[in-house]
Design a protein that fits this description.
The chain has 416 residues and is an alpha/beta fold. Helices cover 28% and strands 26% of the residues. The chain folds into 2 domains: 158 residues, Lyase, Ornithine Decarboxylase, Chain A, domain 1; 245 residues, Alanine racemase (TIM Barrel). The longest helix has 19 residues. The protein is globular and about 75 Å long. Bound molecules: ligand LLP. Ligand LLP binds next to helix 10 and helix 11.
Length: 416
């Protein structure tokens, strides 16, 4: 069940009214439901059943400390792509031994810190990265646990910017050549080869591409085992999508994972997953206020106080995100509205052509804004990033304060 429901004609998150939150904390405002996050994480755990595995939340999707803390308490591991994310996880009470480190450009100092903390695994993406990791581990006199990110060359059938498992993408090592890399790694003094990983794309609404990918990887696992390289885990990355609109199918996370587990039934291989979006997207909204209504005859503009700097997905990926009135009314101006923001760019919209009855001053909620939303916000047009609120039942906590204007130039100088 969604955590966002209408109660007495008002949109609520769990048992807190969004109107009340907007009045207390101002807009634009990100609001998350704790129980929605927990429920989605639990759906992954259920999918694993008794199979050995680790669910590593992809921190890039929502890196707020409170969100990470709530997942850490549930036993989650974390998928990180930078030292920044690593330090966040530690600051949020995450367990270093449950961290997998992804990313194509890991720096030596990032590797060093991750080795000191004793992370679960480095997901290595190139031969040169492997050499660097071996050198860094030698300096610290430890062995680095390594998995290679294999590019399985499968079509994830999603938006080209978030499709990552095709040969033409920059990610991973070509499935045709990775065996040689494994052989080289197995000979290295400070590398411990433990796994194989892939991530084929994001917002996938079908299980089939994952099943194709796992089969390709398992063929390779067998070839490696035939030459004496035995892996402990297989990491299928993230990528399960969410229902953004009525046209989307709602993927059943538990069933997806069960399907993957079925491929591993007769094997002694743990399953690692790196879900981001499917855990947090539908646990969050961006609440924004209509400043003005404006009509040019052809288009009806609802000019709101939230813009592409707060939520860039519609502008960047033509992403469709549902917009709901926080207090629906029938006595406003009924039209097909383009919800546009304050930024001086034509691409600054959060939704177009949405039928609603509106008056200026109304509040709207952009739904499914718990993933890749606040984390991609910027200060463009010298706008402070919104506050973030985490709600649990009747309780609302400010888990990130709104940025103050003076914060925005605190690191600058007059250059005199
Ligand atoms: N693992 C790796 C290596 C990844 O690159 C990603 C996402 C994930 C896991 C998590 O994938 P998820 O479960 O969230 O699909 N900003 C875009 C999405 C970019 C995804 C990047 N990688 C958006 O707003 O749609």
């Amino acid at each position: 069940m969604s955590a966002f429901t209408y109660q007495q004609d008002q949109l609520y998150v769990e048992n807190v009214s969004l109107t009340e939150l907007a009045e207390t904390h101002g807009t634009p405002l990100y609001v998350y439901s704790k129980s929605a996050i927990e429920q989605q994480f639990d759906a992954y755990q259920q999918g694993l059943g008794g199979h050995d595995g680790l669910i590593c939340f992809a921190v890039k999707a929502n890196s707020n400390l409170a969100v990470l803390n709530c997942l850490a308490k549930r036993g989650a591991g974390f998928d990180i792509v930078s030292q920044g994310e690593l330090e966040r996880v530690i600051a949020a009470g995450g367990d270093a031994s449950k961290i997998v480190f992804s990313g194509v450009a890991k720096q030596a100092k990032e590797m060093e810190r991750a080795l000191e903390l004793g992370i679960h695994c480095f997901n290595v993406e190139s031969d040169e990265e492997l050499d660097r990791l071996n050198d860094v581990a030698a300096k610290l006199n430890v062995k680095a646990p390594v998995s290679f990110r294999v590019n399985p060359d499968v079509d994830a059938q999603t938006h080209p910017y978030i499709s990552t498992g095709l040969r033409e993408n920059k990610f991973g090592i070509d499935i045709r050549t990775v065996k040689a890399t494994y052989q080289r790694a197995a000979q290295m003094s400070h590398i411990n080869v433990v796994g194989m990983d892939c991530h084929i794309g994001s917002q996938l609404l079908e299980a089939q591409p994952f099943e194709d990918a796992i089969d390709r990887l398992l063929t390779l696992v067998d070839e490696l085992s035939a030459i004496g390289i035995n892996l402990k885990h297989i990491d299928m990355g993230g990528g399960i999508g969410v229902k953004y609109s009525e046209d989307d199918i709602e993927p059943n996370v538990t069933q997806y994972i069960q399907k993957l587990v079925n491929h591993l039934k007769s094997r002694n291989l743990a399953l690692v997953l790196e879900p981001g979006r499917s855990i947090v997207a539908n646990a969050g909204v961006l609440v924004s206020r209509v400043e003005y209504l404006k009509d040019n005859g052809e288009h009806h503009f609802a000019i709101i106080d939230g813009g592409m700097n707060d939520l860039i997905r519609p502008a960047l990926y033509q992403a469709w995100m549902e917009i709901k009135p926080v207090q629906p009314r029938s006595d406003g101006k009924e039209a097909y509205w383009d919800f546009v923001g304050p930024i001086c760019e034509t691409g600054d919209f959060l939704g177009k052509n949405r039928k609603m009855s509106l008056k200026s001053g109304d509040l709207i909620a952009v739904m499914s804004a718990g993933a890749y939303s606040f984390v991609m916000a910027s200060n463009y047009n010298t706008r402070g990033r919104p506050a973030e609120i985490l709600v649990s039942d009747r309780e609302a906590k400010v888990v990130r304060q709104r940025e103050q204007l003076s914060d925005l130039w605190a690191l600058e100088s007059l250059g005199e």
